[in-house]
Amino acid sequence: RIIPESATVITSESHKTQTHNATWHDFSKFLYAERGSHVSGMSELKKYFHRFGYLSLPETTPNFTDTFDSQFETAVFRYQKRLGLPVTGKLDSETISTIVAPRCGVSDAATNGIHATRR
Amino acid sequence: YAYFNGKPRWTRGAPMTLTYAFSPYNMIDRVSVPEIRAVFKRAFSRWASVIPVSFQETPQYDKADITIGFYLGDHGDGEPFDGVLGVLAHAFSPQNGRFHLDAAEMWSVDVEREESRVAVDLESVATHEIGHVLGLGHSSVKEAVMYPSLSPRRKKVDLKIDDVAGVQSLYGSNPNFSFSSLLQSQNSFNA
Predict the structure, then answer these.
(1) Are A31 and A112 in contact (CB under 8 A)?
(2) What is the DSSP code (8-state) at residue A90?
(3) Which member of B5, B7, B86 has the closest CB to residue A110?
(4) What gap in Å lies between CA A85 and CA A108, rounded to an integer?
(5) Interface predicted TM-score of the whole assembly (ipTM), two decimals
(6) pLDDT per residue of chain A (119 residues) written in tens, 0 to 9
(7) Are residues A98 and A54 in contact, defined by beta-carbon separation less than 8 angstroms?
(8) What is each CA distance from A68 to A23, A35, A57, in whole angstroms?
(9) Is B87's CB within 8 Å of A105's CB?
């Protein structure tokens, strides 16, 4: 069990101090990764995307790889669109901040498409 | 707003009353039971104010429509909790009624007075999960209660237009609710 004091505090670009999830804060090392990148541990981030409904398990290999491939890029696009983030397909700072934030365990894939609210 | 696949909702005769109960065995020490009960009462009443559904606490856990409990790690539903932060809670779609919170979190009923950097506002999470219990999925509107993430020490309990429109499309509107008053309160907040 990770004790509360072990949570990492990161100062963001806007100088706001944020406390990030100790479980997922390692994902901040993937900041600015994009298609073609190969970063050790990226398979863990792919598991996160799989868990919340954005990425299917690989068909050809037994596990996720550490390569930012086209399938993962599609998942990032989908995640950014679903969570109202700028849709870049890259792991930019806003996307990484959202990924490491604590969240509800209900999969985003458990729900139907978004319905627009008429203003 | 979004629904669960198949758009499940509670179906009871009108007027609809759903009962909720706390697990007698799976609670936490950090927040007292009366405080937890008060937090959930407020959270349920927010949803009840916009739809023609009321919520009533019952001591009969086995017979309640909605069952609430705090659990650690693997608690038997295939969705184990992960300790401090990470996943905070989860709830099931209608008409299952199970509502689980991660007992490892630093749950708080007053985040402004909390010293812990990882304190999580219980009322905000309760309000969000009740949305799931009622049939709402995750929203892409960041300000909405049904947005999936919540930063530590952040309080987000007021239903936004997106939340209200979503739940009213499932249950209809509470006759005492008016969108104009919601818009007014949101505008004054934004101002």
Answers:
(1) no
(2) S
(3) B5
(4) 15
(5) 0.94
(6) 333 333 333 333 333 334 445 578 889 999 999 999 999 999 999 999 999 999 988 887 778 999 999 999 999 999 999 999 999 999 999 999 999 999 999 999 887 655 655 54
(7) no
(8) 21, 5, 14
(9) yes
